[in-house]
């Protein structure tokens, strides 16, 4: 397998990362543990989670699985903080008070003494960036965190963080985790070139565009009852549009013509874009995971990439996967 360097670190990760947002929401715990074990067996060595996934239960399941299989030292754990973890005014955001407590709580649930990659789940424009970075730097110096990153932040905010770290001698962001798929390519305009110029790894989310690139949605007026758009509604439903569905169905036809399954080609397209370290896969079932795993060894072609560019022009979008960002 072609393991890739994670930003400017010496750490190598698999070209697919296991995302765990579906654990207990809706994937049962037993199947979630089995998915972790299967992914590790296949060579995936980075598991991504958040303290907000299933109210912290995703972290608990990961900690339990790695304790039982004894493979904690074979994998990297990435988790995040920002979203509310309680009713209090300080139980959220990127303040020192919240990040320090959130990190301690995540360590307990994960049953580990360190987090390999600790990420700001969203930027917090109400808190001075210096305070946030100082807190993260302390967590690194204490050995509780190895590396830090951010998620779904504008390019200027990530760049500002790099500059502050340089000036203050703080730990430096090594990754950014934005949404990226064929239906929303806007990070190609500024974020990807900035990350390439400054040596940040890019671990991207929603490579299948919530299933629109697999033909899951046929009509924006009649959504599958077991889809995220229906089960979770809100921001998930807002991403579905007639235009995006139409392009998604054209992509399905293209994948079939080229001999790929749509899901595999959607992952392969993201995996092999310039500047991308690895896309996140978030299987709901073991069957889905097993369908994704062959992409670890697949090879993209220039013909495939060109055909995808003709569907959605580089830097453009037909769906809004930044609708959770709070800034776009």
Q: Strand order of the main beta sheet, please?
A: 3-4-5-6-7-8-9-10
Radius of gyration: 19 Å
Report helical residue fraction: 25-40%
Q: What would the average pLDDT be, to the nearest integer?
A: 96
Largest sheet: 8 strands, parallel, barrel
Total count of domains: 1
The structure class reads alpha/beta
Strand content: 5-15%
* Distance linking N and C termini: 36 Å
Low-confidence stretches: none
What top-tier CATH class fits best?
Alpha Beta
Please tally the helical runs, counting DSSP H or I stretches of 4 or more residues: 12
Approximate shape = globular
Could you say what the CATH architecture is? Alpha-Beta Barrel
Please trace the helix and strand order, writing H or E for each element: EEEHEHEHEHEHEHEHHHHEHH
Number of strands: 10
Under CATH, the topology can be stated as: TIM Barrel
CATH homologous superfamily - what is it?
NADP-dependent oxidoreductase domain
């Amino acid at each position: 397998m072609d393991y890739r360097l994670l930003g400017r670190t010496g750490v190598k990760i698999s070209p697919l990362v296991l995302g765990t947002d579906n654990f207990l929401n809706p994937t049962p715990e037993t199947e979630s543990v089995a998915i972790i074990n299967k992914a590790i067996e296949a060579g995936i060595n980075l598991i991504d989670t958040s303290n907000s996934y299933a109210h912290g239960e995703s972290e608990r399941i990961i900690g339990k699985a790695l304790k039982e299989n004894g493979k904690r030292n074979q994998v990297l754990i990435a988790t995040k903080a920002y979203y509310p973890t309680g009713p209090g005014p300080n139980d959220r955001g990127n303040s020192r008070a919240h990040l320090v407590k959130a990190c301690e709580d995540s360590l307990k649930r994960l049953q580990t003494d360190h987090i390999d990659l600790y990420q700001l789940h969203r930027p917090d424009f109400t808190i001075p960036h210096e305070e946030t970075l100082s807190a993260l730097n302390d967590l690194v110096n204490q050995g509780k965190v190895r590396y830090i990153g951010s998620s779904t932040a504008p390019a200027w905010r990530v760049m500002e963080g790099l500059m502050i770290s340089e000036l203050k001698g703080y730990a430096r962001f090594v990754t950014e985790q934005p949404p990226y798929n064929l239906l929303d390519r806007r990070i190609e305009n500024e974020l990807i070139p900035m990350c390439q110029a400054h040596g940040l790894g890019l671990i991207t989310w929603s490579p299948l565009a919530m299933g629109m690139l697999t033909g899951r949605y046929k009509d924006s007026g009649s959504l599958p009852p077991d889809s995220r758009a229906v089960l979770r509604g809100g921001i998930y439903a807002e991403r579905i549009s007639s235009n995006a569905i139409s392009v998604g169905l054209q992509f399905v036809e293209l994948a079939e013509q080229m001999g790929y399954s749509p899901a595999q080609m959607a992952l392969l397209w993201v995996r092999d874009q310039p500047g991308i370290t690895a896309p996140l896969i978030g299987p709901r079932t073991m069957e889905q995971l097993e369908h994704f795993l062959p992409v670890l060894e697949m090879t993209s072609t220039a013909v495939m990439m060109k055909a995808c560019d003709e569907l959605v022009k580089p830097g453009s979008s037909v769906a809004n996967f930044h609708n959770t960002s709070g800034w776009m």
